[in-house]
Structures are given as structure tokens and as C-alpha cells.
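Need C-alpha cells for this chain, all 124 residues.
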Amino acid sequence: MKTVKKSLKFLCVFAVLLTTIQFMQPLIVKAEAAPPVSSVTITGRSVSNQHTFITVRVVGYGSVYASIDGRSIPTHNTQLIGNPVHTFIYTFDCGVLNNGSHQFIFRTTSHNRPWNTITRTHNF
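Here are the C-alpha cells for all 124 residues:
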């Protein structure tokens, strides 16, 4: 009797496992590697409420770094383009800038091969 119960229990667990695997098959996504950064363009500069905003367009996936006059600045806004996403429009708030010349530096390094780094500088 114990052997029959053990066998029945094993069959039930096996059936549940097999069913679960079958139902999960459509949920398994086979993702390809993200494309490396291939293009970086500083597309614009604007002033709103005395804050200077700079917009950068990046094609490909990578880490992002930006600075104004040597001071690191965070991303203010990110727009995703494509399905699947392949282009990013980053907007950076440089803050209130004094009169005079300024240097904005943007740098991105690809998340995967060839791990290239692209840097763009905008002097204004």
C-alpha cells in the first residue's frame, strides 16, 4: 500500500511539473544582446526658467555620464524610441548658468562588445 501511495505521489508531482513547464514555454523570451552604442548626437540646447537644458540622442545601449563645466549632472528626462528600444533621447538639466562660456561633456560606453566609448563635447 505504501509503495502505491509513493508511486501515485511521484506521478502527481511529475504531472504538475510537466504541466507547469508546458504552460511556461510561451513566457520564455529569447533575448538577443543589446546593440552597442553606434551614434551620439547633441541635438539641442534650450533655456527654461533660467535653467539650461541639453538634449542628446544615443543609438544603442550604454552607460551614460554628463557634466557641465566639470560638474557631473544627472539625467533629467529619458525618451525611449523603437520597438524594441534602440534609441534614447536624454535631456540634462545643467541648472542656472552664469554668463560666459561653458563646456558640456557627454560620454557613453557600450554595455557589451565592443565596449566602445563615445564622447561628445558642446562649448557654448
